[in-house]
Design goal:
Immunoglobulin-like, elongated, 16 strands, Muramoyl-pentapeptide Carboxypeptidase, domain 2, binds zinc ion, 5-stranded mixed β-sheet, 2 domains, single chain
């Protein structure tokens, strides 16, 4: 009897994970500094490859007391999307199936420029006197897939030396993007898988579409790509991650596809004046514009003969204020 009581007094500690949490760090990303609600989601990470968070695990014993000095292992896996979205060779396949640039995509993943899954600062950490072990998570660029039915999800699993473990899902993707609203005789969407933008850009596009309609342009402005519903990597594009980037068709006299080059040549249906007017409005609103047509006001960049690329990534406050548009 006596020996048994002694045994019970030196009861063995049975560590368990009582809590696993994720705290997203305030990012120094310019978009978040602007304190816009669309870019703050308390339960998710932006798909910008930059944002970080602290993953925190609390280890207690069977009596709820913190266990100090216990090494906790951390591992990270993807939940969705999976398959080709999560490797260099896979992303290469996706890009090649959507017009090319697969080798470029593969190279960017291998160089760490495109992050197909998040990373952890360390694969393990030791609990402090409060029983807390922490590592830093850095987000990926994958925000959704082409179904756009849900945000991307990664999963961190923490495991103790006795094998007990707990997991936490990390959701990645912008939640505040809105679908572009078309304007009859003003603005249309053709062939865009990603039709979502920041809400302020959506408002700007409604105003722009109404201006075009009121000015009786013979053809609408045509959006051919915005962002996916939750943002993130959007093959075949290498930008378009944050709902603040658009591809537009150059304006044409017949409403069909057209092009213009920096040497001054263009397809016969190219509408120089209206393309120039469109680019002017985009630039006035703070947009950075790539288009190769000579004297149209766009910045010349390889691959921009047949579309106007515009982004407000560094300036979208001006988009918000630009309500009256004269085109
Ligand atoms: Zn573009």
């Amino acid at each position: 009897m006596e020996s048994k009581e002694q045994f019970e007094e030196i009861e063995e500690i049975e560590p368990k994970i009582s809590k696993i949490e994720s705290f997203i760090h305030p990012s120094d990303d310019e978009l978040i500094e602007l304190d816009d609600k669309a870019f703050i989601s308390s339960n998710g990470y932006p798909p910008d490859g930059q944002a970080t968070g602290t993953l925190s695990v609390t280890v207690t014993d069977q009596n709820g007391r913190p266990v100090r000095g216990h090494r906790v292992r951390f591992s990270l896996t993807h939940v969705r999307p999976s398959g080709n979205w999560r490797s260099a060779s896979g992303l290469k396949r996706i890009y090649n199936s959507r017009g090319g640039n697969g080798a470029k995509a593969e190279n960017l993943v291998n160089r760490g420029v495109i992050r197909v899954i998040g990373t952890l600062s360390s694969s393990s950490a030791v609990t402090n006197s409060n029983g807390i072990a922490q590592v830093t998570y850095r987000t990926s660029h994958i925000g959704t897939d082409f179904n756009q039915s849900s945000r991307a999800r990664e999963k961190v699993t923490s495991t103790l030396q006795n094998g007990s473990s707990r997991s936490l899902n990390l959701d990645i993707g912008w939640t505040g993007l809105k679908k572009i609203q078309t304007v009859s005789k003003g603005l249309r969407i053709i062939g865009a898988t990603g039709q979502h933008v920041h809400p302020d850009l959506r408002t700007f596009l409604i105003n722009l579409g109404n201006s075009v309609k009121n000015a009786n342009w013979p053809h609408e402005i045509t959006v051919t790509a915005a962002s996916l519903r939750y943002g993130g990597q959007y093959p075949p594009h290498f930008t378009h991650k944050h709902g603040l980037t658009l591809d537009l068709r150059p304006m044409s006299t017949d409403g069909e596809i057209t092009w213009a080059k920096s040497d001054g040549s263009s397809k016969s249906n190219f509408d120089f004046q209206r393309t120039k007017a469109l680019i002017s409005v985009l630039k006035q609103s703070g947009g950075t514009v790539y288009f190769n047509g000579k004297n149209t006001g766009g910045t010349v960049k390889a691959g921009h003969d047949d579309h106007v690329h515009v982004s407000w990534l560094s300036s979208f406050v001006k988009v918000v204020k630009e309500k009256e548009i004269t085109i």
